[in-house]
């Protein structure tokens, strides 16, 4: 099974995102990630629906985090959109995570969708360094231990996988199950600027570290040829010749 490359549509407006995606009109539709910035923009909700109608795999990155009942009700509405993946914060706890899974199922079924969105749990943000995590959260364990603990919590709550650095992918699989997904942001091509990420790897390195899929933003969206860059990321992740 081909591991997906999710293109992070980190644009300020829906118009800009649509303009970028025009280069993929004559190709197989890639998987895309719609984050909070774009979803909360004018027309963001309708844009997600348009993406699904157009044949894109959609990862809606909302990082839901609230009391269990509120997250479940929000997840019902998200489930009705027919998206493929949705993020929730593992730090919200087992009841909140289970509520999100239940809400997504309820929403998808109510809307008549044949597939249920997969919930992906945020462990620790890839922008966090070890020192930042300790200082901000007063967490006494290592960054790796915290990520694995949160991944186990998510797995036990019925979540499909995690969002975490590729540096923790193998440990997450070892602590959960082979089918439990490890989707990793913080991806750059060799030689690209790191930006605001602290734990960065290439697509090929992410694959070697156990990632089941990757999220790539600037290395594709700011490339001279986005289609070529996307194909390169897909090939590197799946071990294929360019």
TrEMBL record:
Protein's name according to its UniProt entry = Orotidine 5'-phosphate decarboxylase
The record's listing under SMART domains reads: OMPdecase
Listed GO cellular component terms? cytosol
A GO molecular-function descriptor: orotidine-5'-phosphate decarboxylase activity
Tell me, in a sentence or two, what this protein's role is.
Catalyzes the decarboxylation of orotidine 5'-monophosphate (OMP) to uridine 5'-monophosphate (UMP).
> Which superkingdom heads the taxonomic lineage of this protein's source?
Bacteria
Q: How does it assemble?
A: Homodimer.
Q: Reaction(s) catalyzed by this protein?
A: orotidine 5'-phosphate + H(+) = UMP + CO2
Q: Cross-referenced NCBIfam families, in alphabetical order?
A: PRK00230.1, pyrF
**E.C. designation(s):** 4.1.1.23
Q: Give one Pfam family, short name only.
A: OMPdecase
Q: Which UniProt keywords apply?
A: Decarboxylase, Lyase, Pyrimidine biosynthesis
Q: Name one GO biological process term.
A: 'de novo' UMP biosynthetic process
InterPro entries, sorted? Aldolase_TIM (IPR013785), OMPdecase (IPR014732), OMPdecase_AS (IPR018089), OMPdecase_bac (IPR047596), OMPdeCOase_dom (IPR001754), RibuloseP-bd_barrel (IPR011060)
List of residues binding substrate: 10, 33, 61-70, 126, 188, 197, 217-218
Q: Which family does it belong to?
A: Belongs to the OMP decarboxylase family. Type 1 subfamily.
Cross-referenced SUPFAM superfamilies, in alphabetical order?
A: Ribulose-phoshate binding barrel
Active site positions, chain numbering = 61 (for ompdecase activity), 63 (for ompdecase activity), 63 (proton donor), 66 (for ompdecase activity)
Its pathway, per UniProt, is:
Pyrimidine metabolism; UMP biosynthesis via de novo pathway; UMP from orotate: step 2/2
The opening ranks of the lineage are:
Bacteria, Bacillati, Bacillota, Bacilli, Lactobacillales
């Amino acid at each position: 099974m081909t591991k997906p490359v999710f293109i992070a549509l980190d644009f300020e407006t829906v118009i800009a995102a649509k303009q970028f995606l025009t280069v993929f009109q004559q190709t197989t539709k890639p998987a895309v990630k719609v984050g909070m910035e774009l979803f909360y923009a004018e027309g963001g909700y309708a844009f997600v629906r348009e993406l699904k109608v157009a044949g894109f795999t959609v990862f809606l990155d909302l990082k839901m985090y609230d009391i269990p009942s509120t997250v479940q009700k929000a997840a019902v509405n998200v489930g009705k959109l027919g998206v493929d993946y949705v993020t929730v914060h593992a730090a919200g706890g087992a009841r909140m995570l289970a509520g999100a899974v239940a809400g997504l199922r309820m929403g998808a079924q109510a809307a008549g969708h044949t597939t249920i969105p997969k919930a992906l749990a945020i462990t620790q943000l890839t922008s966090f360094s070890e020192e930042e995590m300790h200082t901000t959260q007063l967490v006494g364990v290592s960054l790796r231990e915290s990520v694995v603990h949160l991944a186990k919590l998510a797995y036990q709550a019925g979540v499909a996988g995690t969002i975490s650095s590729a540096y923790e992918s193998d440990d997450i699989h070892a602590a959960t199950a082979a089918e439990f997904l490890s989707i990793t942001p913080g991806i750059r091509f060799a030689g690209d600027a790191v930006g605001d990420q602290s734990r960065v790897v290439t697509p090929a390195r992410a694959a070697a570290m156990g990632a089941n899929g990757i999220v790539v933003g600037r290395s594709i969206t700011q490339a001279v040829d986005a289609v070529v860059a996307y194909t390169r990321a897909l090939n590197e992740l799946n071990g294929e010749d360019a």
